[in-house]
Amino acid sequence: MNDHLKSRITPAPSSKYLTAFRTRFGTFRWKVLPFGLKVGPAWFQQFINAQLHDLLDRCASAYADDVLIYSDKEEDHWKDCQEVIWRLHQANLQGDIKKSRFNVTKVDYLGVLLEAGVGLSVDPRKVRSIQDWKFEDLRDRTAIRSFVGLCNFIRVFCYHASGVAEPLNRLLKKDVAFVMGPEQREAFDQLKRLAIEAPVLAFFRPELPTRLETDASRNATAGVLWQEQPDQTWKPVDSSLRP
């Protein structure tokens, strides 16, 4: 859908000169949204939201050109799919059928595994990528930045992952000497453990009993939202950490 969506968005006439580029054949301006503009993703999202406005949070979710269609019942799912596809067709947008999956109970969406009746879980491929790292690979700030960036998704499942990574993030500061010591080794090992042990986050259901646990220190505030499941077990739904 990406290329089709791009061709539907045109910059304002007064802004087209900002897209100008020079070649040996002369200077040219884009008539449609090009890749690389800082405001491009926001335009992208606004356009998609406008097409699916009343379906969002009811049976659809959209992040740029990644559209997720969900339903409570299988018989409703096909109706919801038809409605979303019709909206996209009305906007002259086309999807890639080879990249689309229909009527499934488990799907990878934006790097997170969503499974009906279960919840959100860590993508095993990302866990393997983290486990492939060795402490000796963290030779410089670039390597640390890559490893910590790869671990960022853990924060969705373990709010304290940011605090665990602090000894590594500290070395990214220009005024700090680059010294890998026991503290950094412990942070590295613990992040790898968190990736393996990350809990499954249950889907929020407004009818279930809900509990919010909070904590605070000098450096940050944190909270975990829990819900009691039909089997009377409490499962986390969301977690957050704010410095």
From TrEMBL:
InterPro entries: DNA/RNA_pol_sf (IPR043502), Rev_trsase/Diguanyl_cyclase (IPR043128), RT_dom (IPR000477), RT_RNaseH_2 (IPR041577), Viral_Replic_Matur_Polypro (IPR051320). It is found in: Mitochondrion. It comes from Hirsutella rhossiliensis. CDD domains: RT_LTR. GO terms for cellular component: mitochondrion. The keyword Transferase applies. This is Reverse transcriptase (RNA-dependent DNA polymerase) domain-containing protein. Pfam families: RT_RNaseH_2, RVT_1. Residues 1-114 form the Reverse transcriptase domain.
